[in-house]
Amino acid sequence: MSETRTPVRPTERGAARQTVTISFAGFNRAWAAWIGDRLERRGVRVVYVRWDSPAEETLVDLLRGLSLAEGRVLILVSERYFQLGPRTFEEWNAALREVVGPDPAKFAAVSVTNASVPAAIAVLAPVDLTNMGADEAERRLLDRLDLPADGRPAADPGTRGPRFPAAMPEVWGGVPRRNTRFTGREPLLGEAYHLLQNSEPGAGVLTLHGMSGVGKTQLAAEYVYRFGSEYDVVWWVNAENRATYRRLLAELAPKLGLSTGDEYGERLRAVRDSLRRGNPFSRWLLILDGADEPDQVWDLVPSGSGHVLITSRNPEWSEHNSKLLEVRVYDRDESVAFIRRRAARLSEQEADQLADALEDLPLLLDQTAGWLNDSDLTVDDYIALLEDGVDQDVVRVSADFPVTFQTAWSILLNKLRDTVPESVDLLRLCTFFAPGFIPVRMLREMSHDDLPEQLTGLLDDPLLWNKAINQLRQYSVVRLESHEIGADEVPSPGESVYLHRMVHQAVGKDMPEADRREFLDVVRRALAEADPGRPTDTRNWETYAELVPHLKHADVLNSKDRRVQALVLNCLRYMYFAGEYTAGWKLGRRALEIWRELLGDSHPRVWDVTYHYANLLRAAGMLEETEAIERAAADRLRQERGERDLDYLRVLSGLAADVRALGRYDEALLLDEQLYPTYRELLGEQDSRTLNALNNWGFTLRLMGRYQDALDIDQRTLEQRRLVLTSRHLWTLFSEVSFAIGLRLLGRYAEAESAQARNVREYRIVAGEANQDTLRAEHNLALCLLRVGDRAAAGKLLTKVLEGFERKLGDRHLLTLSAAVSHSCFNREHGDIDLARETSESVLARYEQLLPEGHPFIIGARANQALVLRNVGERQHAHVLIEQALADMSAAVGESHPYTLGCAINATALRNLIGETESAAELSRNTIARATETLGRTHPLTLSARVAYAADLRGLRARQQAEKTEQEALTDLEATLGKQHVHTVSARARNRPYWDFEPQAS
């Protein structure tokens, strides 16, 4: 808080104004802000002075300096006010009597504590503001300062000021308990406050960054308690990984009073939208704790009128519109003050020695001073232990930690063993979870049969469990989570604890091998028993998001327990459906390598993980690698088990997906036509695997341009999935998109738009807006909107979809590139031609890197690029490019494929532009014939060819034939699409039609 502050409202010119100087400990800043606001509203000028008590100055001198402040001095009495320095009560009593006693009218006081304070505080005659409401507290404040309580406030009563400190924000969740030993950091807190308060709307993001153990989380928590009264919503989330962050942010929905269903995605979307709009609360503070990987969560950081505070070891947050504030180790005076508060028996000199030995690292100071206060060990003896390197052969931690941490931790661990040995067992169990937030409730909830003897008491006895946790808390080894509970909730101690990564690593290194094996097995069992078993159900995604980060530290891949292996497979499946492709294929690759060694190449679990790994690898766009893996697996399974084996068929289905994605549609069709009838014969029409094979067959037919056949199959698949699964199952929703795409490709635009709009609403509820399948649905909706003439809505949605895919999957994924193609085409015709060209060239370059030469997507992108070149006046270049695309597309998919027909329509336009009118007309005639045979006389592509042909005939001066051709085309357009449809209107205005290549990525 700054030293002075402007009143909320000025008084009338010339009016005398009373001044009050508020002296407060930084810890009580919220009280100072509220009191100051109450006074300013009544025309009082307020000066704020944060009380400090440097050891080199006497209390008498400090109080005399305070007595020189302007106006009356109002002291906020609290235990923290008198702890600064620190000073003894005897020193305070003497100073108060000497300075305040002779001039009591200069000083006044209000008390905001029930703790013990120096007896001489009586000379200040403090009035108590605790245990009462805001109105009574204000009445007492005004009475103590001899101000009228019934006067009209100078400020507008409707102006919102700081909240009464005893009243919590209306929404409050996840915030760690306040650290009553918090020391120093005043400049950092003040700078953080001003950086956030002075930020532009929508840009209030600040990252506290620094090395491990410097107290970033503690600083953020103290910020919340000091300034939280200025917000209506304060919500703290663990942001160490994307899945956990999304889950915890979604939990804010019911607290905001948002009307949502139980689906995870719907709640997440509603929360982000609510924060963005500032409805129902515009003053909100979101804290992202431990966000060390900005790329994982930056796209989910809300915008709006509120503020976001981030803690991170990573300064790269500056690249994501965040201001940075570095948190360093304590200054020496802060270290000394903290140690003396934590270990009262130590002198200032001893505290200075200890701070120097521990390199002023707050985490280490907290842990060491805590137990040293309970020990008979002198500081000199402790430092001697540090210098001797006790247990350094046992404790070896990361090189980026201070060297002293290694030995200091060994000493503390010995202390824990001597007091409550079960606390060490619990701590060791925690090291087989990921560092950070550890769901220790899983240990309590698991079956306790066949537990190691030394853990039986800990997990079965609630009293012993609480004793162990409290011992760890006492020495700041862990902190408890799930802090605030509702009035109707029963507290459940030990639901979750937070373990710093430095402690996590140190404990993990210091463990007997026999304990390591037993404890590891217990944690694996706990994780496996927490597996909900249905990764396709979005209602279980929160649980899987919580489980996945712990798989590595529990070394689950080296377990032979079938339940643990099933957990791994379910997590891989979850990661596929949730779109966590990169993390998924990396886990799948490790699992495949380890399980082959552990179980043997032909073990059923090896084939299971091969399937999931290949799916994730393919989804990540690594197509040729995926094909090689699945072709080898298919060859081996066919030899070992035959062609009707289910594992073989599953791999063959994956292989079909690989060659389909690589553009070898004929090969994919042969496999699909083999797979579907085989599955149907073996498993029946309604088995999910049969329906998956049917879905894939329809997709291949669509890629081959057989739109009606594809639509018929997609409709059958959709009807069966609705019957067998549920209407909100992910596969059912996926089929709805496929069906809507089919309707659109056949020119049934209104039907397609209606079906797709409803599907998008369902997807947003079930999977959330950021899910890749939701974005796929929105992409098709945008194209439907474009076809029915709603260009504004289409353009806005295309931009949103492209940005969403780039955030979710990166800029090289096939789904991202598909959206980029649509975005470029839209901008070419309705937006920024320079942006269209830039995007088109970028897309083409990325396709050429990802896909083999001759792939239809590369050819189609070149065809689109020709249209961009045409629009910027590079006609000759555009003509050469479109002619090459026409020849290449014909070779790739055949002369009658819609892709080829579209290239032909564009080629006729460019031939006309360069004066090749006769060849343009000839190509148009051939295109009409092929399009009519393939798609029908009234398909939009055929109609475009007919309109183009009419233009060619006019160029040849065959006016009568041109008018006849044009009129017939217009009549069919009006009958098919309507008189006012954009295509009909454009044709009537004699605008030459063009065709946009649209890559079908899924």
Explain what the structure shows.
By secondary structure, the chain is of the alpha/beta class. The chain has a six-stranded parallel beta sheet, sandwiched between helices. A five-stranded parallel beta sheet has the order 2-1-3-4-5. Strands 12-14-13 form a three-stranded antiparallel beta sheet.
Q: What's the helix count?
A: 44
Helix-and-strand structural type: alpha/beta
Question: How would you describe the shape?
Answer: globular
Which radius of gyration do the C-alpha atoms yield? 35 Å
State the share of residues found in helices, binned by percent.
Answer: 55-70%
Low-confidence stretches: 1-15, 390-403, 482-494
Mean pLDDT: 87
DSSP strand count: 14
Q: Going across the biggest sheet, name each strand in turn.
A: 6-8-9-10-7-11
Terminal CA distance: 55 Å
Task: Give the amount of beta strand, in percent.
Answer: 5-15%
The biggest sheet, with number of strands, parallel, antiparallel or mixed sense and barrel status, is: 6 strands, parallel
